[in-house]
Amino acid sequence: MRSIRDLVGVAVSGLTARWSRTLLIMLGPIIGVSAIVAAVGLTESAKGDLQATLAALGDNLIRGEASGSFGSEPAYPENVVERVAKLATVEGATATKTVSGVITSPYEAAENYYTAFPTPVLTADEHFLEVMQVDLVTGRWLNDFDQQTAARSAVVGIGLADEFGFRIGQRTIRLNGIDYGIVGVVESYPLDSVFDNAVIIPATTADRDFAVGLEPDTVYVRSNPGETQLTAEIMGTAINLGDSGATATTILSDALEAEAAADSTLQIIVAAMGLLALIVGGVGIANVMSISVIQRSSEIGIRRALGHHRSLLAWQFLLESVAVGLMGGLLGALFGVGIVVFASRIAGWVYVLAPELDLFGVALPSHYLGVPTLYLIGVGAALGTSVFAGLYPSVKAARLEPLETLRLG
Known about the structure:
This protein is an alpha+beta fold and 409 residues long. Helix content is 55%, strand content 16%. Helix 12 packs antiparallel against helix 13 (373-399).
């Protein structure tokens, strides 16, 4: 062979002569790279969805729950909202109460089922939507008229609405055998999923029908931006006039941030599995190429007898390994992209195909020369693995003598 073109031609002929073998040894790089791309892409897409949720709902919502110092069934004073609202760090507040012992059913025949699997019933005030920053799917929220007249009005969560079919016609729900008119359906709320499947009624109505009192047991506080932690620390003192131990506070966005951290951990685990698949694929490339050297010993002997140098034979087999790794890496990246796009669409996420990466503490750009860095890393890992895997077979082929090839085949 007198030129690189000849070398490439021989390598391509060696790969295309046995397509099934070539495809099998490509599986390792394909699986490894697709796993790495999919792991990073999916977790970054999920994280992006969480970040979009936090941006929409805010990270300054605090939930305060009454603890045991208020009695056997902990509750706040009726004016808890006014007490909290006096804090300089608070933008707004709303209160809710869990109404226990109420059997909820869409119709009388379903009462036995919903007795065994109760639906949450809560009270809320007219400021709920504003403080929680949640929207209605349809209808209206409980207003001041409902509170003052103890109207039997109810708003249901979207999960319950879909389960009972409230969005397609039925407009009443039975609470302990009492019919309540459904005036609205509230959108899903990621920061506190209890509302998704709950029935929400006016506090005055709950007290009249079920004798539960008007004292709420939970308060939601929207703090000023940047003062969430401070507000969480002092709101208990403001609520109970000095006894901060009577309130358990939770910053609701912390749960989503913890979920994002868990996704990052999962990303590392799946990416490590992808790297392991690459390594196993590299071992497969080394094994198959070593067997290929033996199978093609006659070809090697003839070319050595014709004067082909050892280095050319070594380069040929190394080039075949590199070609397998490169093609496998490119196909694996495409499969990984397909997995990210398909799974993200099913989950309703905005897929992220070019995330910001942090490799060993070094921040990498999302793109390099117009190509997502993630793909370059995946293809590069497959290429590097194939180079190392091809070194031994290429050296083995270069060391064969013409007479030795007669013995091998």
